[in-house]
Design goal:
Layout lengths: L1 E2 L6 H14 L4 E2 L29 E2 L7 H4 L10 E4 L2 H12 L14 H7 L18 H5 L11 H13 L2 E4 L3 H12 L24 H10 L1 H21 L1 H22 L38 H11 L2 H7 L5 H15 L5
Parallel strand pairs: 1-4, 2-3, 4-5
Length: 350
């Protein structure tokens, strides 16, 4: 079970899981009609396509608001639970950029630097009851199914973190992505080929807000529960690295980076990601936030060694297209995409 959190490099992990499951003909629990399990509603088994009580699956990995009691009904008792976290300040910056046009609370911010204006006076632009407000505060804690508006020192916060510690076998860290994948490989008894990856859903650098130390401190305080969660699992992560062996980890990370660079040379035209308008094949065009084309993607090489062609195609395929390739009906997701693009095309430039 992969708990797919928002804005944490989780789409790259998803691609790894899709490839592994497809290669070994494993049974996925997929949503019906869209690419997530009706997020932000808490997960229930009824959200799984064609679910019948007693069904057992090999992999659950799409976005959801975590509800262990329901998830456990889909999996055998010894299932492995993994997830990924990211520094809450960087996550908040990314989430604010990606979702702010979908959060009406932010529409009244007049400043050109909307993120800075929000962090300087968050209470002026935030209400816990407002539509999509969860994207703006302690998003990780919300994704795990908890109340993201609790006070940092509320006993329920400690209880929640302790429950996650018991529930998840491995918590990856986006900032140490290769180390995370090596730990994942070790836990699941995989090969190095199983964890090869290209970074998916990366943003072009011009869209990233450079936060001053003062604003970073404010973002950390605003997302204090997520920070507490991240600190806790940062400690457990490095314990696992120590147990794995520091020197052994360095060698394996070096090998993973070498293999990834090799695959980039085999697969990617130009060897790097490009902006959306430069992607030649729509099959490799990533989903974009409302009113933006800030997410980078890749062009696949025209001439590829036949033994790498299929792997290259899968490694470069974004989440939505891969789900369609796996047979998931995404009519609701596609309808939203059409409405989103149609709406933005009718708006005159600001």
């Amino acid at each position: 079970m992969f708990m797919k959190t928002h804005k944490t490099a989780s789409s790259t992990i998803l691609n790894i899981l899709f490839r592994f499951g497809q290669k070994h003909k494993l049974k996925f629990a997929f949503p019906d009609g869209r690419n997530d399990f009706f997020y932000p509603s808490p997960f229930t088994c009824s959200q799984v396509k064609e679910y019948k009580p007693g069904d057992c699956f090999n992999i659950v990995c799409n976005h959801m608001r975590f509800n262990h009691r329901e998830v456990a009904k889909l999996l055998p008792p010894d299932a492995v639970y993994i997830t990924i976290l990211r520094d809450p300040v960087d996550l908040f910056e990314s989430s604010f950029h990606y979702y702010h046009r979908a959060v009406p609370l932010t529409w009244k911010i007049k400043s050109e630097n909307k993120l800075g204006a929000f962090l300087n006076h968050p209470d002026a632009f935030y209400s816990k009851e407002a539509f999509n407000s969860f994207y703006l505060k302690n998003l990780l804690f919300f994704d795990f199914g908890f109340n993201n508006n609790l006070a940092e020192d509320d006993p329920l916060v400690h209880t929640a973190i302790e429950s996650l510690s018991k529930r998840f076998d491995l918590v990856l860290l986006a900032e140490y992505f290769e180390e995370s994948l090596i730990l994942l490989k070790e836990l699941l008894c995989w090969t190095m080929e199983d964890v090869l990856y290209f970074k998916l859903n990366a943003r072009k650098s011009s869209s990233v807000s450079r936060l001053t130390p003062e604003l970073r401190a404010k973002a950390q305080k605003w997302n204090s529960i997520d920070w507490k969660l991240y600190q806790h699992f940062n400690v457990t992560f490095w314990r696992k690295v120590d147990a794995y062996g520091i020197d052994r980890m360095k060698e394996d990370v070096k090998e993973l980076k070498r293999r990834n660079a090799e695959m980039q040379g085999f697969c990617i035209e130009g060897g790097h990601a490009v902006e959306a308008h430069n992607i030649k094949d729509s099959h490799f065009l990533p989903w974009q936030p409302v009113g933006e084309t800030s997410i980078l993607g890749y062009n696949i090489k025209r001439e590829i060694d036949p033994k790498f062609k299929t792997l290259c195609q899968k490694m470069l395929t974004p989440e939505i297209q891969y789900l369609a390739d796996l047979g998931v009906n995404l009519w609701l997701t596609r309808l939203w995409g059409w409405l989103k693009d149609a709406f933005m095309s009718t708006r005159s430039p600001q």
